[in-house]
Amino acid sequence: MTSLEIASLVAIILISAFAIVAIIIAIPLFKLINKIKYMAGKLNESLVPVVEKLNDTITNLNTEVSSIADLTQSISSIVEQLEKVIRLARILVTSPIIKIISASAGLFSGLSKADAEGKKKEDEK
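and the corresponding structure tokens:
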């Protein structure tokens, strides 16, 4: 056997060994790729309805937030009107009450002074 024949025999053995190792590695790799492909398909089937439900939920939430904003705006308007009514009531009620109290205080003060002067004149007589 010549060295060329030995080299070609060694090359054929090495190529065969590499081919066997490649086949041994390729079979589990193909199985893994098929499982990943299957799981991706299942995930796609289950994920699409979840995303659609999430989209509907977000749409409903936006509608509710919009109605809450309208309600808040209405409440703000009511509070402003109530503040105006309270201010008007304060002006209409407190102003006459203050005048009545002032007049009463002045009248009582005047009466007590007149009574004191009357008693003082009687004491002088």
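(Above: one complete record from the training split.) The chain has a mean pLDDT of 87.
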